[in-house]
Amino acid sequence: MGKTLAEKVWDDHLVVKGVDGAPDLLYIDLHLVHEVTSPQAFDGLRLAGRPVRRLDLTIATEDHNTPTLDIDKPIADLTSRTQIHTLRKNAEEFGVRLHSLGDIEQGIVHIIGPQLGLTMPGITVVCGDSHTSTHGAFGAMAMGIGTSEVEHVLATQTLPLTRFKTMAITVEGTLRPGVTAKDIILAVIAKIGTGGGQGYVLEYRGSAIRNLSMEGRMTICNMSIEAGARAGMVAPDQITYDYLKGRAHAPVGDDWDTAVAYWNTLGTDADAVFDAEVVLDANTLEPFVTWGTNPGQGVSLSENVPDPALCTDLNDRAAAERALEYMDIAAGTPMKEIAVDAVFMGSCTNSRIEDLRAFASIIKGQTKAEGVRVMVVPGSARVRIEAEAEGIDQIVKDFGAEWRFAGCSMCLGMNPDQLAPGERCASTSNRNFEGRQGKGGRTHLVSPLVAAATAIRGTLSSPWDLDNAPKSDDELVVL
Amino acid sequence: MEKVSTVTGIAAPLMMSNVDTDQIIPAQFLKRVTKTGFEDALFHSWRQDPDFVLNRAEFQGARVLVVGPDFGTGSSREHAVWALRDYGFAAVLSPRFGDIFRGNAGKQGLLAAEITEADVEAIWAVIAASPGIEITVDLLARTASVGEITVPFAIDDYTRWRLLEGLDDIGLTLRDEDKISAFEANRESWRPRTLPVKAS
Ligand code: SF4
Q1: B197: which DSSP letter?
Q2: How far is B1 from chain A (nearest CA, A)?
Q3: Model confidence, pTM
Q4: Which ipTM was obtained for this model?
């Protein structure tokens, strides 16, 4: 019997095969580090007198706590400042490569790995952050880990892990204009639920996935964790290689050829069997948005807020009722009538250059809805510079939106970028949990295109709802 | 992790049962960025009381805590073990431990030894007669001796082996160090590197 992509990558990293129910010991090719989950790991090393085993497979950045304004001033919040200073101290003491605030390679940890060409097919990637699943878009096995595991990887460059189950998410067909990778993944999570992927590594397949850019594939893999999955993957292909080639850390010369030859063998074998399979029709998909307080509580933008009374599962019903109360919306309300106070364009889900281009293509020459706060936060310093070279910053400013420095920002509000209690936000991020973007804040997860149209109209909208709606499909930048 | 075979030091009696991890270390200390330096956090609220056992002169520098049943129940915070360790405790004797606490203790080199309630009472009596007396906890023999008495204690074989060998999770993995090195030696050169490789 053949093997799946996930099984091939796993097997190629086995250092010790676990027997009698013991976990496998896996080698880790790339360890990404940030300021929130690393301090106790470094302290553990210090305590035991251990060095970092492979400094050349480790890289750190500052993202969760960093301000997106006045980045040259000292950080006002004490906890944030301490975490960042602790990372700087640890990086220096142990010799870890660190990209600090102000550095051109600084940015959200899941944006900079691919940007530097460090994330590549067939490798294992870990980071003390659940959205590490992003890197699976390259055909890597990428997993989020806890702080004691961060210490374990720093010390040994390996991790004991129990084997997973495999699930195929097959998306066939052609996306309509205005429908994006974000809509695919929101629809997948609504379909399988926030626990549907538990214990599984998801492999996204089918023509709709093959036609996505790397940015789109990263958006999809990023949110695998919101379906409860251990990881999400897409088999590498020419689109992957074209994205990777020439990047700072991409293989060159013979190494490149050897690598591509190997990467071409990674795709799931025709006779491999998945433990589960889910199928989604891309042809009928519409822009998808969330109405509730978990990423699985979503509907098409053209639909109404669902009625909890129609939930057959009692737990789901109670959760839906509580969510509607927190979100302060009534069942039956058309999603398009929901007015927002803020729009957040950013996060590791949607803050790459392509996302910013898509957003800018819709707001260009428009003015934002009155009273709506619109914030655009590039995923990395490099993305910011690239966008500025293309004039995107000016489009954003002319529109009346704020153009910020790179970081996680309002995705989780560990820095001052937060919603006020009761404020409602259309956000391109990945989590709509209660209080995630600020205490009492209300989040609707949307694609960059929906975020842009919503910023113009002030209510949840798609580009097709605009007065000057694009006349033809070609006028829309499609992700 | 250091190897543990015997622990000798002053025994401090904590004459209470159901000491949960919130009592061992309150939540306010969980915001810290270190894995060490929690000695001041240990039993934080109780230590406000000048008569609390750890505030008494005879028990300064105590290394073994002798406590009633159900020690370390409640929240899974590993900080509880760190706080005991940072304060200087190397062993805790109790008739019953919270499961997660016992697991965490084993991983961090803190000896959590189960003795009967009658033996706890007996040890408390010896300490009451001569406060500041030293106790010896012998992991090889699985006994604790103080004054004239020696009592047996229970600890599972796996944890005992890890303590005797000085193996934490990382230490366990590093027993396969040769396999890790062999794997590394065969690693293809196209795989990512974050630093330039130094010419050797
Ligand atoms: S952008 Fe949001 S989801 Fe992504 S790493 Fe930062 S906080 Fe986590």
Answers
A1: P
A2: 6
A3: 0.91
A4: 0.93
